[in-house]
């Protein structure tokens, strides 16, 4: 009889554990490019997420459980991203997704996540379509359209631009989205611009830059990632193109390898590591101590996203997906490195955009701008 009682008790414990997730762990998945030419972005997101998890676990974790970050490599490719998502859901049984990192990958997994009803908070996917028609999908960053519009406001007002050259990657949703928003803002202001395109496999931008140099432009808007931006600016300098360049948050970290060709140029970003706010300086110090380098904006956004998702779990009082999604919709996370997080009806935050100038290889905050 004692053996039977022990067996029944054991079964009861097994079913109880199964009902609450089978362990004392809450799992957040992360998807980003961890290898390849865009790996600096994915690694920053993974590091920021893991730093937040470590700090949360030093306290009481999430719902009294240990928070585990499970990160997989998308290589920046949507197909790889879908494979990573399926692995996270089916094998690792994650409770929420922090990601993807890139817009294209995030949109590729969005349909699956909506069907699964999984809570999703992407730190860095800025394409406007990411959160549309997806009540379970939120973002910690501002959108491409908002960022592109703010960049145009800065160029028109601060740089007194009347005629812009817009050089963008037609094969990248991020680059195209910022470019279109910039041009729409110029249209609204009655200002002139000309669009110049390049493709994802291009390495030579001299034809576009030569045409820009021959024109009457007063600024170049270059919404792209470091892999392209570094080459474009290097070739522009070689051509003697003497115009100010303005970029988006994809420029963050450019000064590491391209400080000389980026000198004096501007880019929009989610935060500045030189911000004197205590929460920012604590984050920068802790991240630098842990990983040996200062954090870029993607690391900061991932850090904030994990804290915000954890707070939603606590507000919900459970790991039930529907409860967490409802808590995210009502969330007001104020102690964020990149600015307070409160979502609109689409799951998007509206934030002031920090405009940074590269000076002597350092970030100098020149303004904080909102779309008008």
Quick synopsis:
The protein is an alpha/beta fold. 46% of the residues lie in helices and 18% in strands. It has helices at 2-19, 39-58, 78-90, 103-116, 144-158, 173-189, 206-214, 226-239, 255-262, 278-291, 297-316, 321-329; strands at 25-32, 66-73, 96-98, 120-122, 137-139, 163-169, 192-198, 219-221, 245-247, 266-269, 332-333, 341-342, 353-359, 362-369.
Strand order of the largest sheet: 7-6-8-9-10-13-14
Shape: globular
Oligomeric status of the shown chains?
Answer: single chain
How would a crystallographer describe the biggest sheet? 7 strands, mixed
Number of DSSP strands? 14
Helicity range of the residues?
40-55%
Give the helix tally.
12
Structural class: alpha/beta
Summed over residues and divided by their number, the pLDDT gives a mean of 91
Give Rg in angstroms: 22 Å
What string, H for helix and E for strand, traces the elements in order? HEHEHEHEEHEHEHEHEHEHHHEEEE
Identify low-pLDDT runs. 1-21
Share in β-strands? 15-25%
**What is the distance, rounded to the nearest whole angstrom, between the alpha carbons of the first and last residues?**
76 Å
């Amino acid at each position: 009889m004692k053996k039977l009682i022990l067996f029944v008790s054991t079964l009861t414990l097994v079913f109880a554990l199964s009902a609450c997730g089978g362990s004392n762990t809450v799992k957040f998945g992360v998807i980003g490019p961890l290898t390849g030419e865009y790996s600096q972005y994915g690694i920053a997101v993974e590091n920021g997420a893991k730093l937040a998890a470590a700090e949360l676990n030093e306290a009481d974790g999430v719902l009294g459980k240990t928070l585990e970050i499970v990160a997989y490599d998308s290589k920046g490719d949507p197909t790889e991203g879908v494979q990573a998502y399926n692995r996270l859901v089916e094998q690792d049984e994650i409770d929420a997704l922090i990601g993807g990192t890139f817009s294209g990958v995030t949109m590729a997994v969005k349909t699956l996540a909506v069907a699964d009803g999984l809570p999703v908070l992407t730190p860095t996917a800025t394409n406007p379509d990411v959160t549309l028609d997806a009540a379970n999908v939120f973002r910690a960053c501002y959108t491409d359209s908002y960022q592109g519009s703010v960049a145009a406001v800065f160029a028109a007002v601060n740089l007194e631009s009347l005629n812009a050259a817009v050089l963008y990657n037609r094969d990248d949703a991020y680059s195209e989205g910022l470019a279109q928003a910039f041009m729409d803002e110029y249209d609204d202001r009655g200002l002139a611009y000309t669009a110049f395109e390049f493709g994802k496999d291009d390495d030579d931008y001299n034809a576009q830059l030569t045409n820009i140099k021959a024109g009457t432009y007063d600024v170049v808007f270059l919404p792209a990632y470091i892999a392209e931006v570094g080459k474009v600016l290097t070739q522009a300098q070689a051509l003697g193109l003497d115009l100010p360049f303005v970029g988006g948050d994809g420029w963050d970290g450019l000064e590491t390898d391209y400080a000389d060709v980026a000198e004096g140029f501007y880019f929009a970003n989610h935060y500045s590591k030189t911000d004197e706010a205590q929460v920012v300086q604590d984050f920068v110090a802790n991240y630098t101590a842990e990983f040996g380098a200062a954090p870029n904006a993607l690391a900061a956004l991932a850090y904030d996203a994990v804290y915000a998702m954890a707070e939603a779990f606590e507000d919900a009082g459970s790991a039930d997906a529907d409860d967490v999604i409802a808590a995210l919709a009502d969330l007001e996370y104020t102690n964020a490195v990149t600015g307070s997080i409160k979502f609109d009806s689409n799951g998007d935050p509206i934030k002031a955009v920090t405009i940074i100038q590269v000076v002597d290889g350092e970030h100098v905050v020149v303004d904080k701008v909102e779309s008008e």
